[in-house]
Task: structure prediction
Amino acid sequence: MFHLPTRIFFGSGALQEASDHIFKLGSKALLVSGKRSAKASGALDDVTKLLKGFAIPFAHFDQVPQNPDLDTIMAGAQLLRQEQCDYVIAIGGGSPIDAAKAMALVAANALQRSQIYRIELFRNALPLVAIPTTSGTGSEVTQYSVLTNPDTGIKAGFGHDLAFPRLAICDPVYTHSLDCEVSLNTALDALSHLLEGIYSNKRQALADPLIHAGARDIFENLKAVLQNPAHISGREKLMRASLYGGITIAQGSTTLQHSLGYPLTSKFGTPHGLSNALVMLPVMKLFAPARKAELDALFAALNMDMDGFAAWLESLNLPPAPVLEDEFIAKSVQEVLGSRNMANNPLEVSAEQIRRIYQELR
Ligand code: NAP
Ligand code: ZN
Result:
């Protein structure tokens, strides 16, 4: 089954094009963002101008940190109730969009902090508009929200159809203000999603053309964008690749690659996309026997082979992995084995294989 309930507006002027649909969602909006990016991207000004122009009231929660945690969700949901907002507009990268999804669910279902992952309690959600300002997570078209529990330090996601945004408003101009580091890390996250669309045992072959086109967009445009952050067509292609990655994981979810990355982010603060990229090649080698035909088809579309792929990754000069002590590896192996995404791998993955991948990063 291929399921995508989100209405997508893509390209220059997407916000204007979506405006009638936004106004139908409710009577007062809560804008959800991080501290700086909503403003820096220009999206916040555009949204507030639009709402003010039509005299639509709104409140603004601008306290979403990177890798949002449960306390942030409860604070945002409290403001939602206090301000009597009846829909949510998330502006930012995956962090504000994921946080807004959880806030919309907490508020609509009167959830306690301890119930945020209890998807069986979800009955409703406030409508959500997602306006991405990064080209990476594809969260604007997924049913996932990835949060960190500060009590355990564990980063984990939930997925529920009610978490799909109603509208995704994707205007590449909002990514022109991204610095090189975030541009690189987020593009690698999008690439991870596309690859996991090949690995996942829930994969939908219908997504293959999106996977091939998205990967090609990244290979052909990432370096040009890193050299010139305002590269208009390159930014558009990276945003499209991210959207395709989101549509892909909305069908088949993520796999070992994301499970391996989460502990690096929660323990060392390694950015999400970089965490995935650091384990990308070993995961590809591990899964290649189970996905030979699909990887061959991808590489044919990219006009390269796995060695060429490895050389391309190498040429990006990624920062080295953090120093991984034995104690961290032992704890993370258990965390990875217990992660939800491990049910989607194309073959059985052992504790020893996970340990080896972490050890080889050292
Ligand atoms: P992010 O954490 O949302 O943002 C990273 C940094 O970039 C922040 O400092 C942010 O600033 C800044 N930024 C964002 N847009 C900007 C712009 N246009 N100009 C300048 N700065 C900008 O990064 P992300 O990679 O998009 O999201 C990562 C999160 O999404 C992780 O928690 C990950 O687990 C999750 N994720 C979710 C899904 C899903 O399907 N739901 C999939 C993959 C990953 P501010 O702090 O000011 O916002
Ligand atoms: Zn991701």
Observations:
- The radius of gyration is 19 Å.
- The first strand starts at residue 7 and ends at 10.
- Residues 34-37, 40-41, 66-67, 92-96, 98, 133-134, 136-139, 142, 144-146, 174-175, 177-178, 182, 186, 189, 272-273 surround NAP (ligand 1) (CB under 6 Å).
